[in-house]
């Protein structure tokens, strides 16, 4: 076998890649990217890996969430702040209910590329390349916008760097301080049916914190900041390759675009380019697991992506749909057990429950999302396995994209604030409801 290197994936079939009109222009852009500073560090990556190892043992819990696809315009202070607020508030509920550390990972600062079911799309008799995310082309249905442009890779890097810089500044300056949970309220929290329950939890935690510090006679400064990690689907392999590097005093290569890259279900074939690329990086790696995946397939993924059997290295993020999970997940759990491999299991109850309304809106029903989540918890318990985390598509904004929830959003209500360009997301209130559901189902 040829030794692995960041470009070895180019010798394999590569799905969901952009078709650039000029290879020379692409190469020139990749050369520029390869000289730019990394977006994350190997120390952060190794810290996340050790925490994910704890999650796989049931000693911590992963909360991974964010937009289906980021737009370059999302590099905006208010949008980034709202995303952090909802993840921090959800983690607060989880810490209180599960009594264990919560690992916060955002689908942010790099989720600029999306897989598509077809390379081309037709509107009113006009056929153009599909929109594959701001990292590749534009959403406008014009010939000029839909041509893949490698300069967008540099723009994506810049937006990711600015977003990460702002996240780190907020995390370090006290934005996440448990001493001041009032800073976390969004404008519309007072209208939520869960507002009172949320504030009771916050007050409970604040009082406990004051009691602990009274006993210790000092303020715990560690509670004024939090660790916040980033993730995105490592779809665009040229982009991932350009920031994959060796670092001093560590062996192997690190993908320094993000802490936790993952592989989508459509690109998880063990003989293809994405598995080849991901098999050689030191980052923790996620893989979306879905309907039709065989036991042999998932066992091969364990062998290819975690040959040294490191704890915290490999995550299987399962997304079957509420009507299929009971039939398909147990066999895969047992198949992985037979390999003896270390795996952190994560539930993604969103992607398998997508549907379209009679009026053409792409949506998801809250009850179906909740059903798959609760079934996931029950199945892992019955199979003697551990559910180490959850993976949601959500936003901190007041959108109307998923049907149901405490306010009873119906099909007619979707049109009020339907903003997503790709997949529907849980809004702020629905996301808090999901966090509460997890604590009620898994809490001691």
Automatic annotation (TrEMBL):
Mn(2+) binds at residues 68, 351, 393, 423. Its EC number is 2.5.1.54. GO terms for molecular function: 3-deoxy-7-phosphoheptulonate synthase activity. Belongs to the class-II DAHP synthase family. One of its GO terms (biological process) is aromatic amino acid family biosynthetic process. Its cofactor is Mn(2+); Co(2+); Cd(2+). This is Phospho-2-dehydro-3-deoxyheptonate aldolase. The keyword Magnesium does not apply. It comes from Sedimenticola selenatireducens. Keywords: Cadmium, Cobalt, Manganese, Transferase. Gene3D superfamilies: Aldolase class I (3.20.20.70). Binds 1 divalent cation per subunit. The enzyme is active with manganese, cobalt or cadmium ions. It catalyses: D-erythrose 4-phosphate + phosphoenolpyruvate + H2O = 7-phospho-2-dehydro-3-deoxy-D-arabino-heptonate + phosphate. Phosphoenolpyruvate binds at residues 107, 288, 319.
């Amino acid at each position: 076998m040829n030794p692995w290197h960041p470009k070895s994936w180019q010798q394999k079939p590569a799905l969901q890649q952009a078709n650039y009109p000029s290879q020379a222009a692409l190469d020139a852009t990749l050369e520029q990217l390869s000289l730019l500073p990394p977006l994350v560090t190997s120390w952060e990556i190794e810290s996340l890996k050790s925490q994910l190892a704890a999650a796989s043992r049931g000693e911590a819990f992963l909360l991974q969430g964010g937009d289906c696809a980021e737009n370059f315009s999302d590099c905006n202070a208010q949008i980034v702040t709202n995303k952090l607020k909802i993840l921090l508030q959800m983690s607060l509920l989880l810490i209180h209910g599960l009594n264990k550390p919560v690992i916060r990972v955002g689908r942010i600062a790099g989720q600029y590329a999306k897989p598509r079911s077809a390379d081309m799309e037709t509107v009113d008799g006009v056929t153009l390349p599909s929109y594959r995310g701001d990292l590749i082309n534009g959403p406008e249905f014009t010939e000029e916008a839909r041509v893949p442009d490698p300069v967008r890779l540099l723009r994506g890097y810049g937006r990711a760097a600015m977003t990460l810089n702002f996240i780190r500044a907020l995390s370090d300056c006290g934005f996440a301080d448990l001493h001041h949970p009032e800073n976390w309220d969004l404008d519309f929290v007072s209208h939520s049916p869960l507002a009172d329950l949320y504030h009771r939890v916050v007050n409970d935690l604040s009082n406990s914190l004051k009691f602990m510090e009274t006993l210790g006679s000092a303020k715990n400064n560690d509670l004024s900041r939090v660790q916040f990690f980033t993730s995105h689907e490592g779809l665009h392999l040229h982009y991932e390759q350009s920031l994959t590097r060796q670092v001093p005093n560590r062996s192997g290569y690190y993908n320094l675009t993000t802490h936790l890259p993952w592989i989508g279900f459509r690109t998880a074939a063990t003989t293809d380019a994405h598995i080849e690329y991901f098999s050689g990086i030191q980052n923790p790696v996620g893989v979306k697991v879905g309907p039709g995946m065989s036991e042999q397939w998932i066992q091969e993924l364990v062998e290819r992506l975690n040959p040294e059997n490191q704890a915290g290295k490999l995550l299987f993020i399962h997304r079957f749909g509420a009507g299929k999970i009971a039939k398909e997940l147990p066999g895969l759990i047992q198949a992985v057990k037979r390999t003896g491999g270390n795996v952190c299991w994560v539930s993604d109850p969103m992607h398998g429950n997508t549907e379209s309304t009679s009026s053409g809106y792409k949506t998801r029903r809250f009850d179906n999302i909740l059903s798959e989540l609760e079934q996931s918890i029950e199945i892992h318990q019955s199979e003697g396995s551990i559910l180490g985390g959850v993976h949601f598509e959500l936003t901190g904004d007041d959108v109307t994209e998923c049907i149901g929830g405490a306010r009873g959003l119906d099909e007619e209500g979707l049109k009020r604030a339907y903003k997503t360009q790709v997949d529907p997301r849980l809004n702020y209130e629905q996301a808090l409801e999901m966090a509460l559901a997890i604590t009620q189902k898994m809490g001691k």
